[in-house]
Structures are given as structure tokens and as C-alpha cells.
Amino acid sequence: RCTWITGSARKIRDNAADWHNLMLRWDRLNDEGFNLAASIVNMRHSQGDLLVLDTCPPPSQSTSAEAQQVAGAAELQDECLKLQDVVDRMVMLHLTFIWHEEMSGVLLAAFSQELKLKQTILQEVAHTMTSDLSKVYLSCWLHQPFIPAATRLGLEALLLETGHRPL
Q: What superkingdom does the record give (predicted)?
């Protein structure tokens, strides 16, 4: 164990641990956001089906259908607010990344682009009527195209070099 490291070596080791912890927090938020986005897509498509089915409901079912649509809209709004909260927490985490910019401008750039994508998905996912576009949004959220595998591999190599990971 390298318990008495000082100076630049200590700073590099601490920054590697910080980046690792930040990425773990990002991944947890990403998973939470994906589940919420999937829920929004599923609600939106089922609500869209209700709108098609209820264009001309029989008079006895009008009140029930309207109440169901209002409840569905409220539930959809609630899920959107939860997704907004996840993206807000990602923004705060991104601000933490900025404080560690001396560690790696490459990591910061990757997470900055990914955050912009997530903010775009947040704005669009509840308004998308086509199943294909919804699937693209979910796929982009899940697979994080702006955080390439090489980014994570580089961090793992740094963790190995600094003694955070055993060989």
C-alpha cells in the first residue's frame, strides 16, 4: 500500500479516486434516468393509444375516459419532473467534474457532451409520438455515445497505476 505518498504523486492518486467515484455516481444517475425515460416512453405510447381509441367514446364512457387521460397526464408530468431531477443532479455532478479539470480535459469534454445529450433527451422524450424515435432516445441514454469505452479504460488504467486497483 502507498500510504505515505506526498506531493504530485498523492495529488494524482487522489484525483484518480475522485474521478472513479464521480463516474460511479454518474452511472447510478444514468441508470435511474434510463428507467424514468423508459417509463415516460411507455406512458406516452399507452396514452397515445388511449387518445386514438377515445376519439369518439360512447357517451357512458366519456367521463371515465377523460378522468383516465387527466390521471395519465399527471402521472406523465410526475415522471418528467423526476427525470428533470436526475438531470439536475447530473448537472451538479458535472460541475464537480469541472473542479477536477486538471486531471483530464478529455474526461471533462466527454461528460460535457453526454450531459448536453441528456438535457436534449429530457426536453424531447415526453413529446415524441413515434416509437422509433423514442427507442433512439432510450438507446442514447443507456449507451452514452459521448463517453467512449476508451474513456473508462483510461480511467481503469489510471486506477491500476495509482494502486487503487490490484493487478
A: Eukaryota
| 63-122 per-position pLDDT tens digit | 666 766 777 788 999 999 999 999 999 999 988 877 667 557 878 888 999 999 999 999
Which 3-state string (H, E, C) describes the chain? CCCCCCHHHHHHHHHHHHHHHHHHHHHHHHHHHHHHHHHHHHHHHHHHHHHHHCCCCCHHHHHHHHHHHHHHHHHHHHHHHHHHHHHHHHHHHHHHHHHCCCCCHHHHHHHHHHHHHHHHHHHHHHHCCCHHHHHHHHHHHHHCCCCCHHHHHHHHHHHHHCCCCCC
